TrEMBL record:
<feature type="transmembrane region" description="Helical">
    <location>
        <begin position="131"/>
        <end position="148"/>
    </location>
</feature>
<feature type="transmembrane region" description="Helical">
    <location>
        <begin position="265"/>
        <end position="283"/>
    </location>
</feature>
<keyword id="KW-0812">Transmembrane</keyword>
<feature type="transmembrane region" description="Helical">
    <location>
        <begin position="354"/>
        <end position="373"/>
    </location>
</feature>
<protein>
    <submittedName>
        <fullName>Putative MFS family arabinose efflux permease</fullName>
    </submittedName>
</protein>
<dbReference type="InterPro" id="IPR036259">
    <property type="entry name" value="MFS_trans_sf"/>
</dbReference>
<feature type="transmembrane region" description="Helical">
    <location>
        <begin position="289"/>
        <end position="309"/>
    </location>
</feature>
<feature type="transmembrane region" description="Helical">
    <location>
        <begin position="45"/>
        <end position="66"/>
    </location>
</feature>
<keyword id="KW-1133">Transmembrane helix</keyword>
<feature type="transmembrane region" description="Helical">
    <location>
        <begin position="202"/>
        <end position="224"/>
    </location>
</feature>
<dbReference type="InterPro" id="IPR011701">
    <property type="entry name" value="MFS"/>
</dbReference>
<feature type="domain" description="Major facilitator superfamily (MFS) profile">
    <location>
        <begin position="7"/>
        <end position="379"/>
    </location>
</feature>
<feature type="transmembrane region" description="Helical">
    <location>
        <begin position="73"/>
        <end position="92"/>
    </location>
</feature>
<dbReference type="InterPro" id="IPR020846">
    <property type="entry name" value="MFS_dom"/>
</dbReference>
<dbReference type="GO" id="GO:0022857">
    <property type="term" value="F:transmembrane transporter activity"/>
</dbReference>
<dbReference type="GO" id="GO:0005886">
    <property type="term" value="C:plasma membrane"/>
</dbReference>
<feature type="transmembrane region" description="Helical">
    <location>
        <begin position="330"/>
        <end position="348"/>
    </location>
</feature>
């Protein structure tokens, strides 16, 4: 364990710095957009550029890695992140920002893929969960820390944008100068969403809804804080509480999903999400402390549910299909993140910032109701190949490699195997 941690120390330092800049960027961009007087619908269009770039990178980046290797592509992607945020400071126009944010989405998604491929080379079955837990904690700590840098500057000028670009650039140094052995190029993963849906409908529909919810929150949460009358520091705290709730809920949700039908846990998450989002809409504009508490409950389910669906899909996968399944799930999730801001932005414009949580509550109703319907349609063990480990994901969706690595069956996990000659996935 210690040797594995030492071998990824420089990579984790780069990840921490990258996520500090990402956390700062993800808050300062919507805050500046609000200050420019742009409508929520316009801001949602900018967010759509980001999610399109993020999804495209899931397909394109592995090809670049195969051609030139991990480090060169990582350096190029972090450079794109720095360029993207600096261009936002240089050209303040929403149409240009849509392109700049697409560049950032492409770069951050590819960076996740490279980081996780690197980690896969350094972990064993015995320390996989521990190493990936370190990774997830690093991403959350970095993101929260970056959001708290916003009160130190003024989003209406270029200072925070320049600071963000500098931090992205510094994030290059630990990995670019590392002497650790480089990972082997990843094999290209195939994906077949139609096949995946036939085998596991609840996983595919759930992944799409999870993407829509996280896409709406990550891109419009900052707009909610600004238009609800919160100060910059209070807004940063609210966003941090969502991440904190996600961090605290990972282990309970994971353990529950390993001990019962995962679809029952999906139903429970749908109920918690619906109630907490409606409560958030009701207390919008109220005391900040009350908002922080309710936001933590929203965060406790809005991010972990994606990995819950990935785990369910992999329960019905053969060992050589894990990467294929995870890649397909990432594409579905990415399409969901594209739809989220487009759907929610106009509604927030018409009904106010609290409408964000009303729409999220509706998504949670669909999420829980569909899982409940699938329970009535098929028995828990139909088509089950092996019960795999659950690994919750960070706030920002991670790459296919993380999902596959985190969900590999451990030798210590009791296998529940049925006849898989003609598997019939749920």
């Amino acid at each position: 364990m210690l040797a594995s941690l030492i071998s990824i120390l420089s990579l984790m330092l780069s990840t921490l710095l990258m996520m500090v800049a990402f956390g700062l960027q993800s808050y300062v961009v919507p805050v500046r957009a609000v200050a420019e007087g742009w409508s929520t619908q316009t801001i949602s269009m900018i967010a759509t550029g980001y999610t399109i770039g993020f999804t495209l990178s899931c397909i394109v980046t592995p090809k670049f890695v195969l051609l030139v290797g991990h480090v060169r592509v990582f350096v190029a992607l972090i450079t794109l992140l720095a360029i993207g945020i600096l261009l936002c400071a240089l050209v303040v126009d929403w149409r240009a920002w849509m392109a700049f944010r697409a560049m950032s989405g492409f770069a951050i998604s590819g960076s996740y893929l490279i980081i996780e491929s690197w980690l896969n080379e350094r972990v064993t079955n015995e320390n996989r969960g521990s190493i990936f837990s370190v990774y997830l904690i690093t991403t959350m700590v970095g993101t929260i820390g970056g959001q708290y840098l916003v009160p130190l500057g003024d989003p209406s000028n270029t200072s925070l944008f320049i600071l963000c670009g500098i931090i992205f650039s510094v994030a290059l140094l630990p990995t670019a100068l590392t002497s650790s052995p480089l990972p082997a190029p990843p094999t290209q993963a195939r994906f077949d969403v139609a096949k995946l849906y036939r085998r596991s409908p609840v996983a595919v529909i759930g992944a799409f809804l999870a993407g829509a919810m996280s896409g709406a929150w990550l891109n419009l949460g900052g707009v909610f804080t600004q238009r609800s009358g919160l100060s910059t520091a209070e807004g940063a705290t609210l966003l941090a509480c969502v991440l904190l709730g996600s961090a605290l809920s990972q282990i309970p949700i994971g353990r529950a999903s390993d001990r019962m039908d995962r679809r029952l846990v999906m139903v429970a998450c749908g109920i918690v999400g619906t109630v907490s989002c409606l409560a958030m809409a009701a207390v919008a504009g109220g005391p900040p402390v009350l908002l922080y508490v309710v936001a933590a409950f929203v965060g406790s389910v809005i991010f972990p549910i994606y990995a819950l669906n990935v785990a369910h899909a992999n329960d019905r996968a053969q060992p050589d299909e894990y990467v294929e399944v995870s890649s397909g799930m990432m594409i579905v999730y990415g399409v969901g993140t594209i739809s989220g801001p487009i759907m929610v932005g106009p509604i927030m414009d018409r009904f106010g910032p609290g409408a964000l949580f009303v729409v999220l509550a509706a998504y949670f109703v669909l999420y829980g109701a569909y899982a409940a319907w699938r329970i009535s349609r098929r028995e828990e063990n139909d088509g089950l190949v092996v019960k795999t480990d659950y690994q919750a994901m960070a706030a920002q969706p991670l790459g296919a490699d993380a999902a596959a690595a985190a969900l590999q069956p451990d030798a210590a996990v009791e296998a529940r195997i049925e006849d898989t000659t003609t598997p019939e996935w749920r």
